[in-house]
Design brief:
Length: about 500
């Protein structure tokens, strides 16, 4: 059991702030898009003297964050493994890049409207560089430095804090939406500075990754890091155990050799298929509808007329069968909602029921996402690749995720403007494709070691039969231990069972 000390508490706060940052940054801009002072400052003037945000401006403001994250996720690799920066100083550096972007976004509120529209997207792109880099670096540092007893809970906490960050961004925007001036959106946008400072400064008080130090041959430094994070003396048995495990893992990686990007398309162990699987599930994750709600929820739900403000609906969505939900929400919105701009006194009971259905099933869809499609693709991606190409494979899958995030942010507003709630049927169709693809192409890897996953792909086991597949190597080991008799009957079945949470998942 890990002793509670200041470093453990700081580590948990740091890990939480990382997840919170990603969630908050995803959600903060969507509520701003419907705030009248924001629309006046960044919008265009209509002939009748009112201001509006065109779908093009909405797309640019929203999507440039994701464009920055795509670049940042790739650029971070050039600093994270260097002797000068390492993990912790790379995290601090990219957090400072994020802070620069936040300052530019917030300062746009004090600039002229012409200059502000250039500053806000530029600031979001620069902040996106930091978010993209941190989205790869913080989970990497957490997995390498977290005390053993905290690794499992931290996975849960990290995902929970992403959802909490989204919910907080909606809640804060809701709270400030009544302010009649630019402060209504500058406060939520400026709040990002606090989160960035926690990460940029907090990481400096934590030790460097023990795995990175050991990989450089610094055994003493790695031992000190493990001892500090676990609140034990440097000569404690736990420290020696951790060092031995890390040395064994590094030896395995060295034996496997350094992979090349082109190896991801190779036929050995069906690497081409594993690469395709990792990228496809990231594609489905981004196109199942939840990011559309996150980015354009208040604007979209303003048409529902359910008696709740769009801020309240967005807050509910962020706090808490996706296919069925997407289809019902899309069809009810298309056939029952009144045309956009219909006066309140002309709404029929069918219009009101349509709005209620749209919001209700959107909430259920996002709930399903947070439970299944949100975290699971990242687990599958981590277990898919062998050691020698894991870094390249995970980087490519992450870049795929951010690329589709950008495309959703850029195009979905324009598509929704043309076809309205029917855009949800597009997301429903992607989910149908995802279900079929997973059944036919994606094998079950839970409970398998890395070498057993290689065996699974090499033997070309049918994905729909993979959950009950037992590796031949495990059967042979069971024979040697007497778990299978001469007739081939199983005596001790526990030796053949997959251990959920072990195997590939333990090698992250």
């Amino acid at each position: 059991m890990v002793k509670t000390n200041l470093r453990i508490i700081l580590f948990l706060v740091f890990a939480s702030s990382g997840g919170f940052l990603f969630g908050y940054d995803i959600g903060v801009i969507s509520s701003c898009l419907v705030m009248p002072p924001f629309v006046r400052h960044f919008g265009e003037l209509k002939p009748d003297g009112t201001y509006y945000l065109s779908t093009s401006r909405e797309s640019i403001i929203t999507s440039l964050l994701a464009a920055g994250t795509f670049c940042g996720a790739l650029l971070q690799a050039f600093l994270a493994n260097t002797k000068t920066f390492g993990r912790k100083f790379s995290i601090s550096f990219w957090a400072q890049v994020f802070l620069v972007g936040c300052v530019i976004q917030t300062a746009a509120g004090g600039s002229s409207p012409a200059a502000a529209f250039g500053m806000l997207p530029a600031g979001r792109f620069i902040a996106g560089l930091g978010v993209g880099a941190l989205s790869a670096l913080i989970p990497l540092y957490n997995s390498e430095a977290a005390p053993k007893d905290l690794r499992g809970p931290m996975v849960v906490m990290y995902q929970l804090m992403i959802c909490a960050g989204i919910a907080w961004s909606y809640g804060l925007s809701w709270a400030t939406s009544g302010i009649p001036n630019r402060a209504c959106w500058m406060i939520p946008v400026g709040f990002q500075l606090f989160i960035g400072l926690v990460i940029a400064i907090g990481i400096l008080f934590l030790p460097e990754s023990p795995r990175l130090l050991l990989g450089r041959g610094n055994v003493e430094g790695a031992s000190r890091s493990i001892a500090k994070l676990n609140a034990v003396p440097i000569d404690h048995p736990l420290v020696h155990e951790e060092i031995a495990e890390l040395e064994a893992l590094l030896a395995m990686e060295e034996q496997a050799g350094k992979g090349r990007w082109i190896d991801l398309l190779g036929t050995k162990h069906q690497l081409w298929k594993r690469t395709m699987n990792a990228c496809i599930i990231q594609f489905v994750q981004q196109l199942n509808g939840q990011n559309f709600y996150y980015y354009f929820g208040p604007t979209f739900f303003a048409q529902s007329r359910v008696g709740l403000s769009s801020y309240a609906i967005q807050f509910i969505l962020g706090g808490i069968g996706e296919i069925v939900c997407a289809i019902i929400a899309g069809l009810s919105g298309h056939f029952l909602l009144a045309a956009n701009g219909t006066p309140e006194d002309q709404l029929t009971s069918s219009n009101i029921r349509g709005g209620q259905l749209l919001v209700a099933f959107a909430i259920i869809q996002v709930l399903f996402f947070a439970t299944f499609w949100g975290p699971t693709p990242w687990v599958v991606t981590g277990e898919t690749f062998p050691l020698h190409v894991r870094a390249q494979g995970v980087a490519l899958a992450t870049a795929t995720n951010w690329l589709w995030n950008f495309l959703v942010g850029f195009f979905s507003s324009k598509i929704a403007a043309d076809i309205g709630p029917l855009i949800l049927l597009v997301f429903g169709g992607v989910l149908v494709f995802g279900c079929v693809y997973i059944y036919l192409m994606l094998p079950e890897t839970s409970g398998l070691a890395l070498e057993e996953i290689d065996e699974l792909y090499t033997l070309q086991i049918k994905p729909w039969k993979s959950s009950s597949w037992i590796p031949p190597s495990r059967i042979e080991a069971a024979r040697r231990e007497g778990a299978i008799d001469e007739k081939g009957e199983i005596i001790h079945s526990e030796l053949l069972q997959r251990k959920v949470g072990g195997g590939a998942g333990m090698a992250h």
